[in-house]
Amino acid sequence: MAATPSLVAAQGAPSPDESPVIVVTGQPLADPPAEPAYGVQTLDRARIVAAASGRLENVLADAGVTQFRRSDSRAANPTAQGMSLRALGGNASSRALVTLDGVPMNDPFFGHVPFPALDPQRIGTVRVRRGGGAGPFGAGALAGVIELASLTPQQAGSARAALAINDRGESEASGGIAGALGTGWAALDLRHDRGDGFWTTPAAERVAASVPARFSAWSGQARALVPLAPEVELQARIAAFDDRRTLRFAGADSAASGQDASLRLVASRRWQVEALAYVQARDFANRVISATRFTPVLDQGATPATGLGGKLELRPPLGERQMLRLGVDYRQASGFVRETAFNAATGRITARRRAGGQVADLGLYAEHDARLGPVLLTGGVRLDRGRISDGFFEERASDGAVQRAVDFADRADWQLGWRGGARWQAGPALALRAAAYRGFRQPTLNELYRPFAVFPVLTEANATLENEVLRGIEAGLDWRPAAGVEMTLTAFDSRLNGAIANLPIGPNLRRRENLPAIRARGVEAVVAATRGVWRLDAAGYYAAARIVGEGASAALDGNRPAQSPRFTSALTLAWQPDDRRRLSLRLHHVSAQYEADDEADRLPPATLLDAFARWPLMRDLALVARAENLTDARIVTRRVGNSTDLGAPRTFWLGLAFSR
Fold first, then answer.
1. What residues contact residue 554 under an 8 Å CB cut-off, 6+ apart?
2. C-alpha distances in angstroms, 17 versus 3, 14, 20, 184, 496?
3. CB 438 within 8 A of CB 386
4. Cis omega before residue 32 (within 30°)?
5. Which of 144, 210, 451, 467 sits most deeply, having the most CB atoms within 10 A of its CB?
């Protein structure tokens, strides 16, 4: 995109009769100086767009981020794509907060992340910070924060387009345009994916009703950046998506959709200000098919939900060696589920249900960073007022007669969160750091009020669930042993009190309950080495996690939390002489994990080898080839008794990419 006065910095000061040059960035306020005390890991755009699957969730796996299930958004139920870190387990609701340009992305009803709405082609950087505590929207950042940043005007160019097809005939198409809009900047992006899917059901388990995992999704967004004055910028975003999937059996369809809007004001003057407001409208529908009769047993017709919130942060001028952040934030989620249950044998309606409510959190936070010579110090505190209200559950017979109707009592509480850290630059190439934190997470509307079935297992909701509370400490080092080589090593110890889990209470029956605790200890190592046109990125994440059980959960004491591998690792070797050419190989390994907390069903380890190639054909056009799971490894993503689901087999993609 050609440079314009509104998009580039001035070369020298303007003359007295000239207006000052306004620079549009699309960025938030600068990171606090002591942020490195928390061991932030960053993935750049080159790695994001080189994912062989084209899926952002697989990019995040390289940073140790885990999903509730191993499947990506082509072959997982959307509600199972909750994110977590450091083997803290999961029940499909995210224990990590995912933000895009500072706006929370987690679904307001379920807590999962709508990955079909997050096209990697639109993402400029990914930053992962582990551990809970203070900071904006800290009430949702129990296990950490995954910060996604959209392309800057400088990264976006004026036009982008990509088209790819794989050896099963599935396709991806995306594109975007961007450019100056007056003294500001605007961009429009679209993406569409579709495919008849791969077989998630092993050949030995297939029946007449078995089908591949079909999928179809589209998403789009428009962004505008408007300079209001020198160093004052208004950023606006509207977005929408629609995602449809079929899993395992004909008729086992799901549909998720959403519309988002946000405004962010950034003032980088002497008194720095960042103000944000957003709204989410989401819906979800799902049909459960009997695994024995292959007829509908549950039709979750709709789950309309609304999320809204915002923040206001002030940074008074304290000089170059200090930063004080004072802020307030608010998040609210409301919604309900409407579903119909059927008798699998007769097809008759057995019950009609409605359930829902509202959860809200108002937080006040303050954080102070200071530089004392080679030492960076940081400390922060949050005070949150959480409220759960308007909860209800209603069940009617097929003739409309009320069988059960409950209005749950409203409740509210106060929570104190905090975090603190230090980083000492011990020498030119070595820094030592340590941090401690306390954070919490409210239960989601899904956990509180919505029962669900993954046939034949029924899981009951629990309107009395309490908050999850995490306490943790960590220590590590950042080392540059040679030019072009960076290494980080972190050891951590975390205890998650009141962890929400699906507790077995009978044959094929579970209920969401607060466990006494999950204890996780581990080590994380990340290495990045660059030599000329070659780059090596390697990471290993080890976590020894166990459930602390007693009373009703005594049988789980000492067990490993559900869906929590002991070890994950990623290694990427890339040859990239310039921005237009790249060849890379990625090796990703995940160790064995258990389907549920009772350790009854084991998912074996899996190792994936992916490849990516981009080669210019002419000035603005490149050939892109991708290969997923080159060795065609068997990836078990779900196992309940004799029922197994599999991940993506070997898949080859070929396409074209245009950028200007």
1. none
2. 22, 8, 9, 22, 61
3. no
4. no
5. 144
What is the rounded distance in angstroms from the CA atom of residue 226 to the CA atom of residue 236? Answer: 8
Query: Do the beta carbons of residue 84 and residue 112 sit within 8 Å?
Result: no
Domains of the chain: 35-659 (2.40.170.20)
CA dihedral sign, ordered 113, 116, 122, 127:
positive
d(CA 576, CA 571): 16
Percent residues over pLDDT 70 in the chain: 96
Q: What is the distance of C-alpha 658 from the center of its chain?
A: 28
Cβ distance 285 to 300 under 8 Å?
Answer: yes
Helix spans in 101-156 (H):
153-156
| 150-183 per-position pLDDT tens digit | 999 888 899 999 999 999 999 999 999 999 988 9
Give me the torsion for CA of 41, 47, 49, 55, rounded to 10°: -60
User: Percent of the chain at pLDDT above 90?
Assistant: 77
Question: For 14-50, how does the pLDDT look when each residue is reduced to its tens digit (9 = 90+)?
Answer: 444 444 555 677 788 888 888 889 888 999 999 999 9
Q: Are 459 and 491 in contact (CB under 8 A)?
A: no
DSSP class of residue 31?
A: P
pLDDT band of residue 90 (cuts 50, 70, 90) is: low
Say which residue, 546 or 508, is predicted with more confidence.
Answer: 546
Average pLDDT, the chain: 91
Secondary structure of residue 12 in the 3-state scheme: coil
Three-state secondary-structure class, residue 139 = helix
Dihedral sign (CA 593, 596, 597, 599): negative
Write down the pLDDT at residue 319: 87
Place of tokens 């004072």: 326
β-strands 171-181, 159-166: how paired?
A: antiparallel
Residues linked to residue 276 through DSSP beta bridges, in sequence order: 264, 311
Sheet of strand 123-130: strand arrangement? 41-43, 123-130, 144-150, 96-100, 103-104
